[in-house]
């Protein structure tokens, strides 16, 4: 019942120098699916996303797009394949304006429905800020730019690393509203989220990681919250 591009990892290991951060991760996501990745600080969630987009080195055959090995590629090559990361901590270019951040990303990505203009239509507040340096924005506004920057590359797979971290409740709502639109239009999303309840209610499947391993996975709707939190803390 494959519905198109499928992204998966097969026995994925990742290291930072001598330190092994991921141990044989098997993960998969299909087109249009929303999958959440939960786990405590240091579990390896960001490393898994980075390994998929190529900013952490991995063995080539362990990241597959439609069965084709794409591991070990540069982040820009993954963009052209339709895989984009909204990194932890946003990482906007501080010397560039909102508009310049978006245009630069669009140039490195693929053509499709998401353009800076479309983003401004969805988020009129952002349009008013387009000529401001990205770092002059509030945390919530910066996060919208960070998500927008990934969106305008028109990925099939959008990888979101803790996009609600440190934001006000109103800002979180705005970011998740944008994400809702994206999901409705069929983009697949990997959601790394500290808030387990939000993670489960926003996704169809989940993986729970602990110390570089997947310790539990399943269907979000029927997830047993007590069991998930036990896995989360390694009890
Ligand atoms: N750049 C790095 N250099 C060395 N170790 C790192 C680096 N980034 C993460 N780690 C280590 O890898 C493990 C997984 O980290 P990370 O993927 O950031 O976890 P999470 O996103 O789940 O909090 C942790 O033990 C962390 O200390
Ligand atoms: Mg992280």
TrEMBL record:
<keyword id="KW-0029">Amino-acid transport</keyword>
<dbReference type="Pfam" id="PF00005">
    <property type="entry name" value="ABC_tran"/>
</dbReference>
<keyword id="KW-0547">Nucleotide-binding</keyword>
<dbReference type="GO" id="GO:0005524">
    <property type="term" value="F:ATP binding"/>
</dbReference>
<protein>
    <submittedName>
        <fullName>ABC transporter ATP-binding protein</fullName>
    </submittedName>
</protein>
<dbReference type="InterPro" id="IPR003439">
    <property type="entry name" value="ABC_transporter-like_ATP-bd"/>
</dbReference>
<comment type="similarity">
    <text>Belongs to the ABC transporter superfamily.</text>
</comment>
<dbReference type="InterPro" id="IPR003593">
    <property type="entry name" value="AAA+_ATPase"/>
</dbReference>
<dbReference type="InterPro" id="IPR027417">
    <property type="entry name" value="P-loop_NTPase"/>
</dbReference>
<dbReference type="InterPro" id="IPR017871">
    <property type="entry name" value="ABC_transporter-like_CS"/>
</dbReference>
<keyword id="KW-0067">ATP-binding</keyword>
<feature type="domain" description="ABC transporter">
    <location>
        <begin position="7"/>
        <end position="231"/>
    </location>
</feature>
<dbReference type="GO" id="GO:0015803">
    <property type="term" value="P:branched-chain amino acid transport"/>
</dbReference>
<dbReference type="InterPro" id="IPR052156">
    <property type="entry name" value="BCAA_Transport_ATP-bd_LivF"/>
</dbReference>
<keyword id="KW-0813">Transport</keyword>
<dbReference type="GO" id="GO:0015807">
    <property type="term" value="P:L-amino acid transport"/>
</dbReference>
<comment type="function">
    <text>Involved in beta-(1--&gt;2)glucan export. Transmembrane domains (TMD) form a pore in the inner membrane and the ATP-binding domain (NBD) is responsible for energy generation.</text>
</comment>
<dbReference type="GO" id="GO:0016887">
    <property type="term" value="F:ATP hydrolysis activity"/>
</dbReference>
